[in-house]
Amino acid sequence: MKKVIFAAALISVLAVMSVSAALDDARVRVIHASPDAPAVDVWANGAPLFVNAAFKGITDWKNVPSGTYDIEVVPAGATNPVVIDATLRLSRFRDYTVIATGNLADIQPLVLIDRTVAPSRKFAGIRFVHASPDAPAVDIAVKGGPVLFKNVEFREHTKYRWVMPGKYDLEVRVAGTDTVALEVPGVMLKSSTQYTAIAVGQLSDSSLGAVLAEDRQSKFA
C-alpha cells in the first residue's frame, strides 16, 4: 500500500512539475519569407527546432524554455551553409514570430513579439509586415474604405490595429498614392483573434503576394 501511495504521489509531483515548466515556457514559430531561399531547417543550440520550412510557410508553434538560443538556419536536410546565424532571447509567457526576410544574399531574421490578449471580444487585431525586398514603402487599405497602415518600408512592421470582425478586401498600395500593387481579397478576421499579414515575394518577377498568420485567439471569461 505504501508503494502505491508513494507512486501516486510521485506521479502527482511530476505532473505539477511538468505543468509548471510548461507555464514557464515561451512559444516560437518561424515564417519563411525569403523569396529566393530554399526550404530550410532551423537549429537552436545545436538541435533541430523546425525542419523543411518552405517559402511562404508558417511553422506550428513550439513551446521552448525561456532563455538565450544560438539560432542557425541551413538548407533543409543539410548542415551548411549557415544562411542565418543569430542569437535569440526568449522570455517566459511570451509568443515570438521569427520571419526570414530578404533575398538569400541579404537574408536576416525579423523577430516580433506577439500580442495575446485583445482589448475586447468584439474586435479582431491585425498588424502588417513588409517583407518584399524590392517593393517600395506601402500603405495597407481596405478596398473602398480606410487606410489601416501608412508608409511601411521593407523589414518594418506595424502595431496591431483593432477592427470589427468580418471579411475584408485589402489593398497594398504604393505609399501615399492610390496605386494598387497587390489586391488581397476575402481576408477573414475572427473576433478575439490577432493576425499578422505579411507582404512576400517580389515586384520584379510578379511574385508579390501575401501570407496571413493567426497569432492567437484571446480567452475571455
Say what the CATH topology of the largest domain is.
Answer: Immunoglobulin-like
Taken together, the total number of domains comes to 2
Choose one word for the global shape: globular
User: Tell me, what is the CATH class of the largest domain?
Assistant: Mainly Beta
Task: Give an overview in words.
With 221 residues, this protein is mainly beta. It folds into 2 domains: 22-114, Carboxypeptidase-like, regulatory domain (Immunoglobulin-like, Sandwich), CATH 2.60.40; 117-221, Immunoglobulin-like (Sandwich), CATH 2.60.40. The chain is 10% helix and 50% strand. It has one helix at residues 2-23, and strands at 25-32, 40-44, 47-53, 62-65, 67-75, 84-90, 95-101, 108-114, 124-130, 138-142, 147-152, 161-163, 166-174, 180-189, 193-200, 209-217. A hairpin with an 8-residue loop joins strand 5 (67-75) and strand 6 (84-90).
Task: State the gist of this model.
By secondary structure, the chain is mainly beta. Helices cover 10% and strands 50% of the residues. Strands 4-1-7-8 form a four-stranded mixed β-sheet. Strands 3-2-5-6 form a four-stranded antiparallel β-sheet, with no helix packed on it.
Q: Any chance you could write out the topology, listing elements then pairs?
A:
Layout: H1 2-23, E1 25-32, E2 40-44, E3 47-53, E4 62-65, E5 67-75, E6 84-90, E7 95-101, E8 108-114, E9 124-130, E10 138-142, E11 147-152, E12 161-163, E13 166-174, E14 180-189, E15 193-200, E16 209-217
Parallel strand pairs: 1-7, 9-15
Antiparallel strand pairs: 1-4, 2-3, 2-5, 5-6, 7-8, 9-12, 10-11, 10-13, 13-14, 15-16
